[in-house]
Amino acid sequence: MSHGIAIGRVSESSGVKVPTIRYYEQIGLLAAPPRTEGGRRTYDRKDVERLSFIRHSRELGFDIGEIQTLLTLQDRPDQSCADADTIAKARLADVRQKIASLTALQNELERMVEGCSHGRVETCQVIEILADHGKCRHHQHCD
């Protein structure tokens, strides 16, 4: 596969910004590409595909270490997918926890707004609850 795609075009095709591409090279998620005589990086289609994989993984909330493991698995497709499954299950548990926390926050904000609607500041539930966290019914939104 011939190299020859400039970094700007790789950025455009993969949706990954140029400084981020360089960063991924520095930390080893992307192999350092060959350079032209003028010192410019040149990439191939596989590099674009790898960057797209990384970008999509980041969008789904996987951290760099998890992405490194997933890339290693992708590079060696004859392995069991148990590690990929474990990583995805852990991410799913994190997402479920965040959803529960956001739901509690939503409920608390709805209660605050309901309690304040069209009253005076002296009786405003929003101000009262924000001033005294002990009056908050859903403490898990603060995690």
Give a verbal description of the structure.
The structure is a single chain. The protein has 143 residues and is mostly helical. The protein has 2 domains: 5-79, Multidrug-efflux Transporter Regulator, Chain: A, Domain 2; 83-142. It is 60% helix and 3% strand. It has helices spanning 7-14, 18-26, 45-59, 64-75, 82-116, 125-131, and strands at residues 5-6, 42-43. The chain has a two-stranded antiparallel ribbon with strand order 1-2. Helix 1 crosses helix 3. It starts with a strand and ends in a 12-residue tail after the last helix. 10% of the residues are buried. The model has no long low-confidence stretch (mean pLDDT 84).
List the helices and strands and how they pair.
Blueprint: E1 5-6, H1 7-14, H2 18-26, E2 42-43, H3 45-59, H4 64-75, H5 82-116, H6 125-131
Antiparallel strand pairs: 1-2
Helix pairs in contact: 1-3
Q: What separation lies between the terminal Cα atoms?
A: 49 Å
* Unreliably modeled segments: none
CATH topology type of the largest domain: Multidrug-efflux Transporter Regulator, Chain: A, Domain 2
Task: Quote the beta fraction.
Answer: under 5%
How many separate domains make up the residues?
2
Structural class of the secondary elements? mainly alpha
Average pLDDT across residues?
84
Task: Give the count of helical stretches.
Answer: 6
Helix content range of the residues, please?
55-70%
The biggest beta sheet reads: 2 strands, antiparallel
**Strand neighbour order, sheet with most strands:** 1-2
